[in-house]
Amino acid sequence: MVGYEIDMINEIGKRLKLEIEYQEIGVAEAFTAVDSGKVDISVNNFDMTEARKEKYNFSIPYKYSVGGYIVREDGSSGIEAADLSDWTGKKAGGGAGTQYMKIAEKQGAEPVIYDNVTNDVYLRDVSTGRTDFIPNDYYTQVMAIKWANANFPDIKVKMGEAKYNPTEQGIVMSKADTSLKEKIDEALEAMKADGTLKAISEKYYAGQDLTVPVENADKLPVIEVE
């Protein structure tokens, strides 16, 4: 297994002198596995929502993110409002049931659902007009566009201007053991201070530092969905 969170957890284990044993489980089981004691922590870009914080301990944020969207390069998608009000009637491409598609539907967009397709399919459909935009994590989409520019120059897309729904991600733990949270928080604080966490972020997110809060996050629109 590789990735930002894997490198982060390995570094935490190294600093705390702990041996890390990974278990690959589905997202739906990630929280119940903590409840049952099957795992000590769960990590998978889990947002630190108020509802979750009532039931679980979270580490300090190790990653900050925000919603974004991809549109046609020539502006013909017709989406530019900062409050997302012009999503109404537009065709949004994405996977069924994702938070971002729920946001799009709540804003009046028409969902165009994809199942297990590659990124170039999503992006090409925006470029050709089959869909108007793709709502998703901003930083992930920045990487997708860089990848498309390098590999599919005929796909003409860009990032939309507005951002929305800023989030903080943390490591999920049981409330039964606060000592684990204290140790993990201490390691994360040290990794932030010495630049290790930033370096890991830049390694996996095309030079982007996701370890600092999104600028003006308190002024961005928040669309509440289940």
Q: Number of helical segments?
A: 8
CATH architecture assignment of the largest domain: 3-Layer(aba) Sandwich
- SS class: alpha+beta
- Measured between the Cα atoms of the first and last residue, the distance is 30 Å
Strand content: 15-25%
Explain what this protein looks like in three dimensions.
- This is Extracellular solute-binding protein, family 3.
- Keywords: Signal.
- Residues 2-208 form the Solute-binding protein family 3/N-terminal domain.
- By secondary structure, the protein is α+β, with helices and mostly antiparallel strands.
- It has two domains: 4-62 and 170-213, 3-Layer(aba) Sandwich (D-Maltodextrin-Binding Protein, domain 2); 66-165, D-Maltodextrin-Binding Protein, domain 2 (3-Layer(aba) Sandwich).
- The protein is built from eight helices and nine strands.
- The chain has helices spanning 4-16, 27-36, 50-55, 99-106, 119-128, 138-151, 178-193, 196-204, and strands spanning 41-42, 57-58, 63-72, 91-95, 110-114, 134-137, 157-159, 164-169, 172-173.
- The strands form three sheets. Strands 3, 6, 7 and 8 form a four-stranded antiparallel sheet that branches. It has a three-stranded antiparallel sheet with strand order 1-9-2, sandwiched between helices.
- The protein is globular.
- It starts with a helix and ends in a 22-residue tail after the last helix.
- The mean pLDDT is 94.
Which descriptors would you attach to this protein?
226 residues; alpha+beta; D-Maltodextrin-Binding Protein, domain 2; signal; Extracellular solute-binding protein, family 3; Solute-binding_3/MltF_N
